[in-house]
Amino acid sequence: MKRAISALAFVLFLLLGLSVPAAAGGESDPTVGGDERVSVMAGPCGSSYRHIGHYPIGSSPVLGYMDVYWSSTAKRNCLVVNHSSATYGKRLYTEASIWPYGSSAPSCPSSVGCDGGMYGYYAGPVYTPAGVDMSNRCVNIKGVVDWTTATRTRIHCG
Q1: How many domains does the chain have?
Q2: May I ask which residue range the UniProt record assigns to the signal sequence (predicted)?
């Protein structure tokens, strides 16, 4: 009996934990299935990335958050822009941009380091350019939700 309850609790834990969107390209539907479930459990940027920053977009109300991640293995940063409760589920223009400090900002919506579109839950994940070791470099980020923009420059410097 205890084994059955433990198995049921584990399944419920997995089901609740899998409700967070994590597929690339700013999915507008928070449900995830199939092979994408592995990336959800690993986090939105991948298993080697850890969360290092959380920044609001807008105030009164906060429309969303920019979440920054770092991988010491890949030597890259990652950004996801998530809607807050005020905008969650509403299809609004949402953008996530990330680039090394001292470089030009990426152009949206479809270049490396930028994802933008009419999304209801999040934009990204987007990454600093491959082949650029971010270990001793600062990063710039920009997040947009419903045309409200937040930018942070020269942050998370190696």
Answers
A1: 1
A2: 1-24
Q: How many residues are present in the chain?
A: 158
* Nearest of 67, 58, 69 to residue 150 by alpha carbon: 58
pTM of the model: 0.74
Which residue in 150, 152, 98, 148 sits closest to 128, CA to CA?
98
- pLDDT surpassing 50 at residue 82: yes
Determine how β-strand 92-100 pairs with β-strand 114-119.
Answer: antiparallel
- Provide the CA 100 distance to its chain's centre, in angstroms: 17
Percent of the chain with pLDDT over 90: 68
Spatial distance between the Cα atoms of 84 and 74, rounded to a whole number of angstroms: 29
Question: Could you identify the residue written with the tokens 């920009």?
Answer: 142
